[in-house]
Automatic annotation (TrEMBL):
InterPro entries: NADH_UbQ_OxRdtase_su1/FPO, NADH_UbQ_OxRdtase_su1_CS. The keyword NAD applies. Belongs to the complex I subunit 1 family. The keyword Cell membrane applies. It is a multi-pass membrane protein. It comes from the Bacteria. The gene is nuoH. It is found in: Cell membrane; Membrane. This is NADH-quinone oxidoreductase subunit H. It is an enzyme of class 7 (translocase). The chain crosses the membrane at residues 6-28, 74-94, 114-134, 155-176, 196-214, 251-271, 283-307, 327-344. NDH-1 shuttles electrons from NADH, via FMN and iron-sulfur (Fe-S) centers, to quinones in the respiratory chain. The immediate electron acceptor for the enzyme in this species is believed to be ubiquinone. Couples the redox reaction to proton translocation (for every two electrons transferred, four hydrogen ions are translocated across the cytoplasmic membrane), and thus conserves the redox energy in a proton gradient. This subunit may bind ubiquinone.
Length: 346
């Protein structure tokens, strides 16, 4: 029962923490865009507009939930749930720190250390597109259907290089467990570089971060919800908390992908050239490992915002061309080179 109790506490903590981060990111997005564009941004609701996400949440909860007359009611209701649930569930296999020892009991800072962590992430990432397609089709709106079709095409085009980039990392580390991969990134590489995945898989990291932006439907790959072309795409007809689930799901997906990037390529909770466990107590070390991991994730979350308000959206043919003509050949080349190096034990 104690094991189940600890697991339940970790699940509640992760879900609550993820919700808080997704809420705060709505404020960061607005303040960040204002800073980049030399505007003020939210500055009325609380100091520095910090209560703006709370005001938005109250608005979404209290607005009337309108269902279009000609919408397919079941699909319309199912779409947001299918989109948000995988985003919230994917974080279960990502370690958010090393371990903490409380009362002589060692607690791993990860909800579930499964040996198929990669496959779990890819499977749930593939499921999210059903929420977009079902919601777009169920809305019975031409713009929503176009957004759903675009999302399907993007998934087919970019899931392949996304998976191939992950497969190259599996070849390097020889495991599907994200915790084991994190532990392997301690120390140095080639005698002077941090033993991080980005130095072992530089091309793999570039492929992963590009495809991650597409997986999250973020600029320059936000074709499924391009406001200037198809109004708001797949969630055009949504309002109230149904729309909130789509918006929250997007930010949770950004958080999960950023955490996965840190886990695979940037040493997880490890600091370069420093072993925190040597000079910190068991409790302090657990907290420090969580904070280091979170600060790294914050950098990539800010990068999502920075790119959105800096880079213009690609044309649809450019997105498809980049996926099929550039990323997939590069991913196959990276996989071949990685397999060759592993085989030769270089």
């Amino acid at each position: 029962m104690e094991g189940w109790g600890i697991a339940l506490i970790k699940v509640v903590f992760i879900w609550t923490w993820t919700l808080i981060i997704a809420t705060v990111m709505t404020w960061v997005e607005r303040r960040g865009s204002a800073m980049i564009q030399d505007r003020l941004g939210p500055n009325i609701a609380g100091p520095f507009g910090l209560f703006q996400p709370l005001a938005d949440g109250i608005k979404l909860f209290t607005k009337e939930d309108i269902v279009p007359e000609k919408a397919k009611k079941i699909l319309f209701a199912l779409g947001p749930v299918l989109f948000a649930l995988p985003a919230f569930s994917a974080y279960a296999v990502i370690p958010f720190g090393d371990k903490i020892i409380i009362g002589g009991k060692e607690i791993i800072l990860q909800v579930s250390d499964v040996n198929i962590g990669f496959l779990y992430i890819i499977a749930l990432g593939s499921m999210a597109v059903y929420g977009i397609v079902v919601g777009g089709w169920g809305s019975n709106n031409k713009y929503s259907i176009l957004g759903g079709l675009r999302s399907t095409a993007q998934l087919i085009s970019y899931e392949v290089p996304f998976g191939l980039a992950l497969l190259a990392a599996v070849l390097v580390y020889g495991t599907f467990s994200l915790r084991e991969i994190s532990l392997m990134q301690q120390g140095t590489f080639l005698g002077f570089l941090p033993n991080w995945g980005v130095f072992k898989q530089p091309l793999g990291f570039i492929l992963f971060i590009v495809t991650a932006y597409c997986e999250a439907n973020r600029v320059p790959f936000d074709l499924p919800e391009a406001e200037s072309e198809i109004v708001a795409g797949y969630h055009t007809e949504y309002g109230s908390m149904r729309l909130g689930l789509y918006l929250f799901g997007e930010y949770v997906n950004m958080y999960t992908l950023s955490a996965l990037m840190v886990t695979l390529y940037f040493g997880a909770w490890h600091l370069p050239y420093i072993d925190m466990s040597q000079f910190l107590g068991p409790v302090a070390y657990g907290i420090a490992s969580f904070l280091v991991f979170f600060l790294k994730v914050c950098f990539f979350l800010w990068l999502f915002v920075w790119v959105r308000w800096t880079v213009p959206r690609f044309r649809y043919d450019q997105v498809m061309g980049l996926g099929w003509k550039s990323l997939i050949p590069l991913a196959l080349l990276n996989l071949f080179i990685t397999a060759l190096f592993v085989q030769l034990s270089i």
